[in-house]
Amino acid sequence: MQTTPPHPPTITDTTPIILLRILLASAIGISFFFNIHTLPLFDLDEGAFSEATREMFLHGDFISTTLNGEPRYDKPILVYWLQALSTRALGFSEIGFRLPSALAASIWVMVIYGFVRHLKDERTGLYAGLMTATALQVSLIGRAAIADSLLNLFITVALFCIYLYYQKPDRRLLYIGFAAMGLGFLTKGPVAILIPLVTSALFFSLRGRFRDWYKAAFDLRGLLLFALIAAPWYGVQILRQGQAFIEGFFFRHNLDRFQGPMEGHGGSLLYYLPVLIIGLLPFTTVLLKAVSRFKQDRQSDLGLFLWCWFLFVLVFFSLSGTKLPHYIVYAYPAILILMATHIGQLRSRLWALLPAALFFSFLAALPTLLDKFKDRITDPFVMDILATAADPFPTNYTVAMLTALVVTVYFVFDKRFALAYKLSMIGVVTVTVFWGSLMPVIAEIKQSPIKEAALLVRDDPAPIVMWRLNTPSFLVYSERLTEKRPPRSGDLVLTKGIYLSELNNFQVLLEKNGIALIKLL
Q1: How far apart are CA 495 and CA 436, in angstroms?
Q2: What is the pLDDT of residues 44-89, one digit of tens each?
Q3: Which of 71, 282, 312, 343 could cross-link to 420 by cystine, CB 3.0-4.6 Å?
Q4: Is the pTM higher than 0.90?
Q5: What share of the chain is helix, strand, coil (3-state, %, to 5)?
Q6: Residues 501-520, buried b or exposed e (16+ Cβ, 10 A)?
Q7: C-alpha dist (Å) from residue 353 to 15, 151, 297, 327, 427
Q8: Are 39 and 143 in contact (CB under 8 A)?
Q9: How far apart are CA 137 and CA 328, in angstroms?
């Protein structure tokens, strides 16, 4: 077996460990829990997952999910069960639906910290955890009321166990990996097997140990454990739903997604490059440093393993017909660990902090840019939003963004603190202004009219029609199902304001930010 000699501490700064621990705890709290209870559910995904959970209680069925009364085959059951437990304790609320994801993301960060601490040193582990917790896209996905935070945790645990098993064959590690894949399969399906399986096969093969991989991958006890976790629900679901579930889940929402764009979510082979650059803000420079060290990293066992993981996910989803930004997050643990091993090698403060400075500058200028370029917008719905919406940017928005920019510029000139520590601080600043200032603005524009309309009609006995609009969070907040048909007299109708000209004889109950709630007379 080829082994890698113990690594010396990677980062040579003198920031007290206790300070980094406190910063990591703060980063997790802000990134995954700050304003988690005040921001409304975002459509489409948060609304759909949350409504499917609500309908389990509505129908008294905790095996087969529905959305607006129709079978929902998009995802397996585990995240719905966890949301059901959470909402049973906290009610049908934003925090009730989001808490399982936020907790999973927090555990995910700590697992990454522990793994890197075990293989490297605590300082590198803390920086890996800090960058993971505060990378922009991780923060966004980590708290969302969807399945991906949970899936990220299980994929990461499975792959970490595989690598540790490679280092020291211990059946307990192998079985934890199988259990994690079983839970992942119960969370989102085949992708929870595909990523660990292919990554480990590539890595073991490149190290000349394919036979060891084969024996581990087809370990009978491991396969039995996987089956005991995942098979019961799938078996019951197939018995209940039959071919419709097989075709809807395995073919349409898995195989068909790879073969071609679904619901308009396509893109070029380079789709994920800008996603990486933006999604890993404010650590884009660290990403570039890690990429530049590819040749050196692949010489070590850990480096090769992490690059196999990252590159497989990147290539696979780049070739997939359906592309969504969050697919690349499945590769983030690998690249973030690589980034943590190289963050101490950055020398230029300006270069390291430039992405954050540009990001905060853009956000500070956003109100002015929207006002300046709104005449060039051609989408009728967006035009209607801008025409009818009140100024959504409060004064404290601009103050927050300019403050973040000033802190970043100060760190460019400061020579007292280690650059890695300053980048971590900027990561915490990033998620603070993101969730404290930017997302409330987006929520006010995009989701507040949906929630307000839903609360208006919650107790109205009239039939509700959602017409030429798909916002399932409306169902969550109204605690009602809607009918799918053309509107008729006596209906409550939720639609886009641009479609009102096609209807006659109605009373406007709410018109805000391009959304209209009316009652046909």
Answers
A1: 29
A2: 899 999 999 999 999 999 999 999 999 998 889 999 999 999 999 9
A3: 343
A4: yes
A5: 70, 5, 25
A6: eeeeebeebebbbbbbbbbb
A7: 18, 31, 24, 27, 10
A8: no
A9: 10
